[in-house]
Specification:
408 residues, Spore Coat Polysaccharide Biosynthesis Protein SpsA, Chain A, 2 domains
Length: 408
């Protein structure tokens, strides 16, 4: 028998009555929830209408909101009830689809996949309100460098979780155990699935640092990011989507170049005036290792961080345009307001530029008035883009000074 998707529909109004006959055969509708007590116990198409407070009594895969209005408000109510964000679907976004059946079929396949996903969670979390998760599993040649820096520079009030998408790795499990970190892994290699599932396992965390396995963190970077986030939020002048340190090799590298007075040197080196937009406006930055060598050859990453600390204390800049999210801080409120990550394509690992996690964060900021901030008192390193790895491995071996840990 083909796998069914066990669904609770939220909303017993006209939209539900008009659309319920179009739902896919694979949906096994368990119940329909609605806050209107006058509807409780009645049925729509033989489906019982229940009090939303009874949802926890049912075994279900997802909750699909059938409401053209107030969908975001309903999502927040369900989140407050403790329902995993990734299980809540805004059904109304399919309302205007030219062929709704195709969209519903796509939605069904995505959620059947995530609901059948196997995951492993080695839980060592504490009562801390902050979490660092490291997307890791495919660049083991960097693990010693990168994880040693996490051990040295991640404050004790931040829980750490190593997150592997598409594999369980005994080495990472052992590293996590040695450092009293949590470890989370999924058998499906898609970082959108993996991050949604992992976030559901840490519902108590209010502030989340997301980091890729090729990022070199530096001293005090975590506190500087948090202080910037907290200071701007308390000031109340803008809604903060995420905070990042200066990262030289990045789509927002123009800020680093300006703050360190390197714009003219960059233009001369690469014989170009264009320096805004990084790899977004200049895709060759992702492939030509001359760019990664240029940034890493400026100075040791810890010395760059110390210079930033001396020059940029309590300063930040709003990021114009898209930012590569290899190392960011965001809040639980922001993640919940997104509804988690949309699951994107069934195939692929979730990095795609047009619907990956980075694109979704940027799009949510644009659509709902959040801002990305770069704190100017911290510099961290991004090793390189994937097509530059071969050259950069040689560069690192021949130039260890730029990568080694130097503490003030």
């Amino acid at each position: 028998m083909e796998q069914e998707l066990k669904v609770i529909i939220y909303g017993a109004g006209n939209y539900c009555r008009e659309r319920i006959s179009t739902i896919p055969n694979e949906w096994n509708v368990i119940a329909i929830a609605d806050k209107d007590s006058n509807k409780w116990g009645k049925t729509i198409e033989s489906h019982i209408i229940i009090d939303p407070r009874e949802i926890h009594c049912y075994e279900y895969d997802v909750i699909i909101i059938f409401a053209l209005l107030y969908g975001r408000e309903i999502m927040k109510e369900l989140q407050k009830m403790g329902i995993d964000t990734w299980r809540i679907i805004q059904g109304a976004k399919y309302h205007c689809a030219w062929d709704r059946s195709l969209y519903y079929a796509d939605l069904t396949e995505k959620y059947k996949k995530i609901c059948s996903c196997n995951s492993w969670f080695e839980d060592r979390k504490s009562d801390n309100k902050k979490l660092l998760y490291v997307l890791i599993g495919y660049k083991d040649f960097l693990w010693e460098d990168v994880l040693e820096r996490v051990k040295l520079f991640c404050p004790k009030d931040i829980d750490v979780c190593l997150l592997s998408s598409g594999r369980y790795d005994d080495r990472l499990s052992s590293i996590s155990k040695q450092n009293n970190w949590s470890y989370f892994a999924t058998d499906i290699n898609n970082i959108l699935y993996a991050q949604n599932l992992m976030m559901a396992s840490f519902p108590e965390k209010e502030y989340i640092y997301k980091m890729d396995e090729d990022v070199y963190v530096t001293e005090n970077c975590f506190n500087k990011m948090f202080n910037c986030f907290n200071r701007v939020c308390k000031n109340g002048e803008m809604n903060v989507g995420y905070v990042t340190p200066m990262i030289p090799l990045n789509s927002s590298s123009y800020i680093f170049l300006e703050e360190f007075g390197l714009v003219e040197e960059y233009k001369k080196m690469f014989k170009r005036n264009l320096y805004y937009g990084g790899d977004i406006s200049s895709p060759e930055i992702r492939t030509d290792s001359e760019f990664s060598r240029f940034y890493w050859s400026i100075d040791n990453i810890d010395k760059l961080n110390l210079k930033a600390e001396n020059n940029g204390m309590n300063k930040f800049r709003v990021i114009a345009g898209r930012h590569a999210i290899c190392f960011i801080l965001f809040s639980r409120e922001f993640f919940n307001s997104m509804g988690g990550f949309d699951l994107g394509e069934l195939e692929g690992i979730g990095y795609d530029w047009k619907d990956g996690d980075e694109f979704q964060i940027m799009q949510h900021c644009i659509n709902f008035g959040y801002y990305g901030l770069m704190t100017l008192d911290s510099v961290c390193g991004h090793f390189c883009y994937s097509k530059q790895e071969k050259d950069m491995i040689v560069f690192r071996r021949e130039n260890p000074y730029y990568f080694e840990i130097i503490r003030d």
